[in-house]
């Protein structure tokens, strides 16, 4: 927040639109954020990181920009509507064929299921790296090995900042994510990494502050995909978040969040009144956990928690297919997402609140 306030108060320039001090400083802030993001995901070239409006915008750019007429794409039964709705649109408008690989009831995907769905016209595989419902991780390297030669589009909204990502080692073609979760930026900002040679059709065309003498959209990166005034205040906040991650270390962040998740799961299990979804017997590797209290609707539980000043997400979490997979459709579940700044006392208070609700 300090970085964003400093930009709005002391800079306020529009990057790339002038040569004056404020404009140059704005461009410098965006460059630094891009460089830190590239370092975080081990991307070799920061210019291949494109800023978007949010994670949904990133996924739309990759999906709508890569899939063409009558292409075949494979995805999974754990995907968010930010994947499923663009694919449904493409089915209706470009005759794109969609195959859905069924995941196990706890949410995990066997890469062989994808391998068995590949056709001659298969162009891409779209995979949710970490579930926004269960917090479970998919085996990116196993999936990549099973899908050699296809575009691999990865939804990393839940994992980036909380789990190491290596776009080169994992051979990811397009990594899509939002910046307001574990990257600690403000809402309304996302980004997508595009591997060299991956050039989706832009979703927007217009002013970029570069090649202004031409009415043709520039082809250079990142300008090609960043038409219009960027969300520089949001990018400044992201720079602050990335600086925090860099100084703290992702290992330390994972360690603390992992301890919180273990305490959370153990406490919920100890009540004897909850059903926890996802892989059994261990805490999710990222700070996302969904559960239900026996005999109570998620909406009831959310209402009671809200009365106690505890805010959770209830329902289908924009992921109806995932809830069908884990058996919680149509009512969904209660999702709780601790973070690095959550304390042990917060977890204890949450568990006590759940216990009280379960006993009423």
SSE arrangement:
Blueprint: H1 2-10, H2 21-41, E1 49-52, H3 55-66, E2 72-76, H4 81-93, E3 97-101, H5 111-115, E4 122-128, H6 140-146, E5 151-155, E6 174-178, E7 190-194, H7 232-248, H8 250-271, E8 274-276, E9 289-293, H9 298-307, E10 313-315, H10 320-326, E11 333-336, H11 344-359
Parallel strand pairs: 2-3, 2-4, 4-5, 5-6
Antiparallel strand pairs: 1-7, 6-7, 8-9, 9-11, 10-11
Helix pairs in contact: 1-7, 2-7, 3-4, 8-11
In short:
The chain has 360 residues and is α/β, with parallel strands linked by helices. It is 39% helix and 14% strand. It is built from eleven helices and eleven strands.
Order of helices and strands: HHEHEHEHEHEEEHHEEHEHEH
Which bin fits the share of residues in helices?
25-40%
Q: What is the C-alpha radius of gyration, as a whole number of Å?
A: 21 Å
Give the termini separation. Answer: 40 Å
Shape: globular
Helical segment count: 11
Output mean pLDDT: 96
Give the tally of β-strands: 11
Widest sheet: strand order?
A: 1-7-6-5-4-2-3
Global structural class:
alpha/beta
Contiguous runs where pLDDT drops below 50 for at least 5 residues:
none
Structure description:
With 360 residues, the protein is α/β, with parallel strands linked by helices. The chain is built from 11 helices and 11 strands. Strands 1-7-6-5-4-2-3 form a 7-stranded mixed sheet, sandwiched between helices. Strands 8-9-11-10 form a 4-stranded antiparallel sheet, covered by helices on one side. Strand 4 (122-128), helix 6 and strand 5 (151-155) form a beta-alpha-beta unit. Helix 2 crosses helix 7. The longest helix is centred in the C-terminal third of the chain and has 22 residues, at 250-271. The chain starts with a helix and ends with a helix. The mean pLDDT is 96.
């Amino acid at each position: 927040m300090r970085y964003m306030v400093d930009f709005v108060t002391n800079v306020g320039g529009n990057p790339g639109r002038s040569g004056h001090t404020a404009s140059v400083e704005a461009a410098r802030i965006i460059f630094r954020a891009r460089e830190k993001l590239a370092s975080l995901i081990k991307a070799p070239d920061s210019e291949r990181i494109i800023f978007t409006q949010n994670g949904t915008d990133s996924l739309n750019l990759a999906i709508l920009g890569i899939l063409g007429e009558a292409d075949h794409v494979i995805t999974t039964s754990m995907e968010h509507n930010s994947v499923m709705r663009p694919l449904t649109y493409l089915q209706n408008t470009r005759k794109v064929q969609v195959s859905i690989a069924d995941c196990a009831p706890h949410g995990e995907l066997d890469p062989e299921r994808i391998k068995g769905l590949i056709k001659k016209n298969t162009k891409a595989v779209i995979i949710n790296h970490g579930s926004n419902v269960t917090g479970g991780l998919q085996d990116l390297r196993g999936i990549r090995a099973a899908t050699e030669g296809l575009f691999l589009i990865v939804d990393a909204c839940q994992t980036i900042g909380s789990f190491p990502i290596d776009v080169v080692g994992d051979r990811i073609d397009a990594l899509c994510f939002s910046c307001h979760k574990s990257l600690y930026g403000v809402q309304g900002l996302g980004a997508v990494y595009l591997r060299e040679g991956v050039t989706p059709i832009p979703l927007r065309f217009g002013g970029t502050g570069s090649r202004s003498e031409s009415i043709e959209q520039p082809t250079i990166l990142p300008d090609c995909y960043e038409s219009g005034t960027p969300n520089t205040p949001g990018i400044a906040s992201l720079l602050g978040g990335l600086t925090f991650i860099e100084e703290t270390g992702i290992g330390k962040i994972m360690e603390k969040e992992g301890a919180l998740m273990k305490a959370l799961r153990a406490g919920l299990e100890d009540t004897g009144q909850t059903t926890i979804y996802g892989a059994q017997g261990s805490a999710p590797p990222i700070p996302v956990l969904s559960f239900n209290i026996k005999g109570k609707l998620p909406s009831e539980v959310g209402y009671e928690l809200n009365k106690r000043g505890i805010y959770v997400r209830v329902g289908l979490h924009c992921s109806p297919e995932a809830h069908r997979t884990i058996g919680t459709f149509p009512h969904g579940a209660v999702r709780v997402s601790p973070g690095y700044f959550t304390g042990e006392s917060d977890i204890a208070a949450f568990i006590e609140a759940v216990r009280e609700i379960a006993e009423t």
